[in-house]
Design a protein that fits this description.
There is one protein chain. A hairpin with a 4-residue loop joins strand 21 and strand 22. The protein is 19% helix and 37% strand. It has eleven helices and 45 strands. The relative contact order is 0.05. The chain starts with a helix and ends with a helix. It is α+β, with helices and mostly antiparallel strands and 643 residues long.
Amino acid sequence: MRLLKPFLVLAVILVLSSIVSAAECPDDCLCLTERDAIEKGYEKLCNNEKKVCGYEDDVEKYCWQKPVVTPTPSTTPYSCPDKCECMTEAKAREKFSCPTRCSDEVCGYETSTSVSALTPSTPMYCFKDDCPSAVCPEECACLSPDDVKEYEEAGVRLEKCTDQPCDEDVRKFCYRKVEWQCPTGCSCLDKEEGYRKGLEFCKDSTGNLVRCGVISAEHGVYKYCFKKPEERCQFDVYRRACTGYCPDNMRCVATSEYEVCEERCKIKLEECLRTDSEEECKKEFESCVKLCIPECACVSYECPDDCRCLSDEEVRKYREEGLSLERCKEEQCGDEKYCYKVVKECYYDYEKNVCVGECPDGKCNLNVVRRDTTGKVVYAECSCKPVGVCSDECVCLTKEEAYRKLRNPVTCSDQPCGREIPATLASVTMENYKFRYCFKEGTEKCYYDRERQSCVGSCKDAECRLFEDAYANPYCRCVSKVEPQSDAYVERILPETAEPLSCIPVKIKINPKAGTTGLIITETYPSEFEYMGATVEPDKVEGNTLKWLLMSEAGLKEQEIEYKLCLPRDALGDYYVKGLWETEDNAGEIMGDDMLKVLSQYSDWPPCPVTDTMLLSFVSQWAEGELTDLQMLQVIEIWANGC
């Protein structure tokens, strides 16, 4: 026992020494034998010192440096779905309001930039911002940036309703429309109305026009903010009209002194035309008008449009010039002033070579006329005759009045029953006396409802269908539903009325019998008219006769041909169109409309000839809304091709 004690003490000392030495290795080192270190891939001693840290089976162990462990990325990293991004959780929390993993798959690693080589790379995952979608308020809509751009290009103003996305597409937000508002003192009007009222544009701080509404986004037509111009009521020498603004409930018009002076010049012109040439008389008229001092004044709106608020002195001046006046209403329109309108008696207009003026009853007809050797009228007298008065069931109206007051206006006669006197006392070159005709309510119920923009009513044994004339104006007609009883049923459709120097569409509806392989259509139109093309060009043209050859191996189908006819300047009254259809075994007349009624809208319109100066003047009138598109086309026709 005494011999074992020294050895036991030595063993205890060696064990304690090993434990103490192992504790001396730093945290990033391991205590291993040299053999174990080589097997585990440990190549470097800790602090490059061969320091004993312990023993294993009497073999010394040393502190070895741990090797750096770098994760090996997959050869085919996971690809994130659409709308997801590959990032660490830390970056996802930093970038997104509501970071959500799209998948648990690792899509990559973020290499550490730490000083310690033992820090492993951080795995990255697919993240997206998946906050709960905002519910748009009732007056809002969920729009993408592209939607917002389309609205803004169309002139619609938008504002955000919320700051949160309203769709899985985080770019979509709730927007509401913002009503246009004009600055204080400005009104929202379309351009034509603003120009007509003599107003000027309101502008923003940068000098741009202020839009306040959309009329047609497709064509880029908008409403703008207008304000009253700084200049007050005055005479525009270029337009030869009174323009500018007046206080509320007043209008800017020429003074009675100026109008009386102008009327005096017109009377002198009529007297001159009886003895001198037209060219000399026009020069005298222009010289006379230049002496009339153009003055404008603001007058009350209390009088009707065709009346003027005049004092007794102003009425006396009118009557001294031979003009007849009558009161428009009993109430005063000012201090000792009443509303009057000029009543033009029946007289001969030497410039237009026609009787003009208003008659209490009947028509203003030519009574006496004298001409020189060249055929020019040197003297003429007109008088009112009780002829052409409408019957009890008919009313004397202009075409516009008839279509405004009657659902299905039908003319009682193609002879005018009177003329409409212009509302203002314009110069001679501006006078247009619009014809009135006798109209009545037609028995046919089919008509075009302007409010609904569609055909309404019904037709007996026919269909109420919508058509367009040559100027794209809609109208409705009864179209027969009759099925072909023989080899074919062919029907012609004409407009109810037309005007001189206009173009009309003629429609031919062809309903052949089943199995018909060949059909010839022959149309003969008035020789005074001019053929101007068709949807299906005729196969043969002989003078004013058109022929179409229709054929099909499988049998002809129901179809329609439309051709266009243009009317001459002197067209007036009833004109007839005739037609036939032929097959190999049968023939028949084209049914439907065969008569076109031509009504002259104005007396002696358009003027002829039209000079370059006159044409530019008419263009100005058209731009101001005083001439319709059709009238302007008629003037251009005369200017280009002569009388």
